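User:
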Amino acid sequence: MIVTRFAPSPTGGLHRGHAWSAILAHDRARDAGGRFILRIEDIDGTRSRPEHVDTILADLKWLGLHWDALSFQSARLEAYRAALDRLAGMGLLYPCFCTRADIAREVAASLSAPHGPDGPPYPGTCRAIPVAERAQRIRHEAHAWRLDINAAVARVGPLTWTDERAGAIVANPTPSGDVVLARKDAPASYHLAVTVDDAAQGVSHVIRGADLFVATHIHRLLQALLDLPTPAYHHHPLLADAHGKRLAKRDGAPMLAHYRLAGEDGCAFAARLRTDMGLGPPLALPVETIMGDS
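Assistant: Predicted structure:
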């Protein structure tokens, strides 16, 4: 059975780009007689808000989308802790006491700093801290837990994953550096939580934006380390505004709630998206242009 999901973070409302991703995942499941899961990724305690959850649910219902299950990451903290404990038991995690300013200085001092999905890769400052010193500092210093990427890659060997648009991909998580898997203010990073949740919820097809393509290399590594299944992936192009700029909450992209509260027909809005993106008969009214996968 095909199982898809849409997994927004309640840090603001949804825009057309979110709508397009949700529609793709919803329609893929419905066309195959499968299941569509709505997962609220609400473990960022500093930005997640209950009122944004209400807005997300209202927006999706307005679009005419219906889900078979609703879950909240905040109810799954024990599962993330178990995954972290397993990785720690393999000797693959280490505490990082660096502040963002510390990391920025280290990166600036390096000769080159190729970027991974989370920006410049961590320079490994805390990786060499002796075990005894780590144990002492953990008791009284704020810290994150990082994955020793080289040790992790060496443990599992070569890996592949498949994207429906790009084909077979050789996993290459190393350029991302020692990614954070948990912080003091967030019990699991996006990378860890999404990997654990997709497996637990039986997601067979992950449909999401092309901006997360690179992150999939890390997720494939975590799947191998934790003995989890690997779903098929479909990274779709991103919607952009009339000037070619990617739609984003932080840039003030028009929210679906604006159209919904103005009395626009949500099902017609969704139908226009399907049409303009090649999934239905033509309708009037243009939608934003499309960004490529770069």
